[in-house]
Write a structure and sequence with these properties.
20% helix, 135 residues, single chain, 30% strand, four-stranded antiparallel beta sheet, three-stranded antiparallel beta sheet
């Protein structure tokens, strides 16, 4: 059974520009690991206008930042994962969590997405640039 990814963009607020949240199997990964007050990466960074998103999975493994605590990643570290396409599967593995994250976060499991679903969700997110008007 594959994991299911949903990407959402939260509107800008008083402290931060629009940022992205990652829902896997119905759970907000950022909130689960970096807690309330943490944020995902800026939408402009992971859903850039006019070029492919770094969320796109390729055969070359690369580390992707998914979130940071309220105090900022430079202070406590970032939530990151290695993203890689393995044939018809997109794998998220080798998690790194902010130092203040829950102890269970250091044992986050590898996630496996059906590449067709993953690619469709990334494309849907890239196309929905409504938030750029407010950034």
């Amino acid at each position: 059974m594959f994991d299911l990814l949903k990407i959402s963009v939260l509107p800008p607020g008083p402290r931060f520009a629009a940022h992205v949240r990652f829902w896997v199997n119905g759970e907000d990964i950022v909130e689960e690991v970096v807690h309330v007050g943490g944020r995902g990466p800026y939408a402009a960074d992971v859903l850039p206008a006019g070029r492919p998103s770094p969320l796109r999975a390729t055969e070359e493994a690369r580390r992707l930042q998914l979130g940071e605590p309220e105090c900022t990643g430079e202070c406590c570290g970032f939530l990151t994962v290695v993203v890689q396409r393995l044939g018809d599967i997109v794998q998220w593995s080798n998690w790194q969590v902010p130092w203040a994250g829950p102890a269970s976060a250091s044992r986050l499991p590898d996630l496996h997405f059906e590449a067709v679903q993953y690619d469709a969700e990334v494309r849907r997110s890239e196309a929905g640039g409504w938030w750029r008007v407010y950034s």
